[in-house]
Task: structure prediction
Amino acid sequence: MYEGAVQNLIDELGRLPGVGPKSAQRIAFHLLAAETADVHRLVNALVAVKERVRFCAVCGNIAEETQCRICRDPRRDDTVICVVEEPKDVVAIERTREFRGRYHVLGGAISPIEGVGPDDLRVKELMARLSEGRVTEVILATDPNLEGEATATYLARLLKPMGLKVTRLASGLPVGGDLEYADEVTLGRAFEGRRALDF
Amino acid sequence: MSLYRDEGIVLRTQDLGEADRIVTLLTRRTGLVRAVGKGVRRTRSRFGARLEPFTHIDVQLHAGKSLDVVTQVDTLHAYGSVLVTDYPRYTAGVAMLETAEKVVSVEKDPALRQFLLLWGGLRTLAEGAHDPRLVLDAYLLRSLAVAGYAPALEECAHCGVPGPHREFAVHAGGMVCSLCRPAGSVKPSPAAVALMVALLRGDWESADASAERDRTECSGLVAAYLQWHLENGVRSLRLVERA
Ligand SMILES: [Zn+2]
Ligand SMILES: [Zn+2]
Result:
């Protein structure tokens, strides 16, 4: 245990995802040794992210205005919506340059064991967007793991009566992984080879 | 002897750090085991799919100070890939996995009968021959019975006088006679009670022939009974969908 402020910092850092007690200690001493100006830049970045960043009113992606950059872009194709779990999946798919449509970010996957059901995700918002009638294809790009698949199954069943084309990314994406870890080439191929779901 | 091999079913996974995952297994010989699968969230990992919930695996583990580490894993049966294509079956399956973990609860204490029960339950669910909600309720009742909490259905839970009795009291342990019945007892339909008896015995012929409203009532009784006996309750039960 260290005294007051240093221990406080170690405790706070240790609560971040992927940071264990050893790393927390290493980061804390790095900050202690760093230039004051560098630390202030970090502090400002932390404050700015909480004050300025919000979620897009249309798709749920990260945004600095009411709508995100992609929803504001008039060149994007309004007839295709790609459904993902998290904003970081939007980034992963944008990197492939394979997709020119719009996104819908669910805010997670259905996870009964964590108590997360369809009502806890942005499913109602998705249905509302689809009911406007411009969309002809919905691509289900939830993670290629069990909870992602279960979420896709749930959505496919829900969308069936709407008569839209519902597709799922082609396998070739390794099962059990997170979408964000797929490399551009694999993810790009998964987009090209997406298959229609018939439930 | 820090390396050991066992056969188990993946109950749950939790992300750990950047790319690792903690998996909770119910094994044949060791009971409940929590272990780390290193790098399994990376898409190149061969382990990833094998360490997903519902997978029946042959696994080699390295015993660690706090958590064991998965060093080798082979799939024996991948029930998840079938269950995930059908939402009601999937949610019933998740409730089974969560119940298994909560009923066994103590780590590394052999629970062979619980392992066999879960394995049989998942197999039945994957085969799809019965209503998933019936498979789930049968599993819940039997899992509680193996743990020593079988509900009294044919005799009074309090005094043991043979039935049939009309009233059910969760906190008394099942059906109760008219003399013992505590406040808060409910009066289920005889058909719903008969369905619980059939599920506990594995009488699928009677269970499959049951009416929808009796299944609903039976599920309600089983859920109330389960939540009473498991300290923290089974969260996923709320999200189980009817077929
Ligand atoms: Zn947006
Ligand atoms: Zn009695």
